[in-house]
Amino acid sequence: LQIRLATRGEQHPDIAITYSNTGLAYHSKGEYDKALQMFEGMLRGQRALLGENNALVANTYCNIGLACRHLQNNARALQMYERALQTQLANLGEQHPYVGTTLSNMASGYHSKGEYDKALQMYQQCLRIQRAMLGEHHPDVAAAYQNIGAVLESKGSLQLAAISYSKALQIATATLDAEHERAEAARYSLNTLCDRVAEFLEQLVSAAADLKICEEEK
Predict the structure, then answer these.
(1) Scanning 33, 66, 120, 146, which has the fewest C-beta atoms within 10 Å of its C-beta?
(2) Cβ(62)–Cβ(102) under 8 Å?
(3) Residue 216: what pLDDT?
(4) Which residues of the chain have pLDDT under 50?
(5) How far is the CA of 160 from the CAs of 132, 151, 167, 173, in angstroms?
(6) Overall pTM > 0.85
(7) pLDDT at residue 6, as a whole number
């Protein structure tokens, strides 16, 4: 990379490819700070060569966002995903898989921040895109239902969460092996939610019994 930079300069197309490959290699090794440096170098070259409004630039914004998430910089990650989304919408339109992926990444960030309404809205947008592109019975659609269920559970909408988890499990087991990690994740989420509801009901029954005893003692 250093030799190519010295001989060709950062704005040469080959440099962007080298930055990308090196960044992805660092990312796969878990060296996210180094990956981030590579992706940022790639972005500088791409913007100089292609301008801001280009689908390849949007992809680099997504890579930067992903590295930032791993580095616990959620605010910057969301900023990068937002830039990627606007560029993708301008170049690819709303009904494109890359748009769905970016919406899902943003939703995950908002879920982590506790902004459940924003997260839910974006996961639902992602679901609409995936259903339009892939149909109802696809593993990615199952993953979208799983994500929606997780946000609904965080919001306390347990009945709706159970419905979403059930859909995720149904689709995952129909399109993947029953022991596949996505099917297992949906099954675990649904079972955990059911246990949570059962525990809550037990607490209600216990509280009601204690209240009745107190009233009788009076």
Answers:
(1) 33
(2) yes
(3) 58
(4) 6-7
(5) 22, 10, 11, 20
(6) no
(7) 44
Quickly tell me which residue has 């197309």 as its tokens. Answer: 13
Residue pointed to by tokens 């060296």: 31
Structural tokens at position 111: 């879920």
38/19 Cα distance (integer angstroms): 5
Give the largest CA-CA distance in the chain.
Answer: 91
Helix extents (H) in 29-96: 32-50, 55-70, 74-92
- In whole angstroms, give the CA distance from residue 154 to residue 116: 7
Query: Tokens in use for 217?
Result: 């003692």
37 closest CA partner among 12, 63, 69? 63
Tell me the residue type at 61: Y
For residue range 138-170, list pLDDT tens digits in order. Answer: 999 999 999 999 999 999 999 899 999 999 999
Sign of CA dihedral 92, 95, 97, 103: positive
Q: Say if CB 182 and CB 215 are below 8 A apart.
A: no
Q: What is the pLDDT of residue 213?
A: 61
- Give the whole-angstrom CA distance, residue 49 versus residue 31: 27
User: d(Cα 179, Cα 191) in Å, to the nearest integer?
Assistant: 15
